[in-house]
Amino acid sequence: MEDIKRLETLYLKAKIEYYEGTPIMTDPEFDAIEKILKELGSKAPEQVGSKRKDFDFPHPSPMLSLSKVQTEKNEDGTTNYMEDKFNTWLLKRATTLRMPPGDLILQASPKFDGSAINIIYRNGTLENVLTRGDGALGKSALKRFKPRLPEKIDINGVVEIRCECVIDTDIFEEKYYGSKEDGKYANARNFVAGVIFKVPS
Which of 4, 13, 104, 191 could anchor a disulfide with 185, C-beta 3.0 to 4.6 Å? Predict the structure, then answer.
């Protein structure tokens, strides 16, 4: 029981630091702890993001983490794509949609390592730009993004455009990588999380 609590504490701390833009572990390390906690029946992985006082703008619909299937390394160093787990995941989605698995159209895309945002239009007018926050509430970054977005779109109702803010790794390494003491950033994710709230003068 003590080991679970220790892992939960470390896991939740890592989650908070990630959303603060100062990750304390790599994605594979985080995923490994998450896998162990799920196997132990912990509820900690069900918490999305971290609670903060400035997460005070609601998302029109929950902005949750994407479902994923982990890959693992085999003893010989090759990658195990965990076909059984993927097929179970696929069958569950097909059952929910009441469709044969063969009729589902799947889309694969790269996983970008940045900061997720939600651009919200209501009845054709730009309403807000939110960070993911805790999935229900986010922090507004409207001032930063407003000059780069159309004020109006020709669509009624609520439109949510979800995307990832990233920086080209070559540009980051050339201009921004370095120590905090030098005003630089340890990794690209930290840079993006920090620059989102710097309003251009």
Answer: 191
